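Quick one from the shared queue. A colleague (R.T.) flagged Staygreen protein as missing a structural entry in our internal table.

Convert sequence to structure tokens.
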Amino acid sequence: MDQAKMKWLPHRVHTVFLEDVTPDDPVVGRKYTCIRSLRTGRMHVSIGKQYHDAELSRRYGRWARESIVAEWVSPDELQVHVHISGAGVHGRAGMRNRRFLRDLPFALAAMRHADGYLVQVHPELDHAQIVVRFHSDVSKYDRTETWGHWRDYAITPNWRHRFSR
């Protein structure tokens, strides 16, 4: 399904705060684990000081590595990591790259929506730059890109991500 046909449905975002964080603290070191269920279409976003290993280690998650993880390294930068190929990832690198490019704006919007109170308490985070690290054993897909700012993923009525790739 191409991005123009995908619809933002906030009720499809399931959020879990792990025991080591609160809705507004900490910022630096705060980590997101975002996994989209292929069966239900729901985005599962876990927020904690560690990545949600239980979600990442499920049999399908280990096999397909469809997860996107992110971490606040400073109030000015959110680092995002996706695995395109290598390290036990199954699937063709080109196909996985296209799928992540298509789905990443929605995953970032889901993370921001799931953690909306954090931005209310720390509005300076809206100016943070998003740096995405694509991990791949194929050199043309192994790269780092800047994907705008955290404010670009705020959900408004009729939201469509403004960056096209």
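The chain has four helices and seven strands.
The helical segments are 53-56, 59-64, 93-114, 116-121.
Added to the table.
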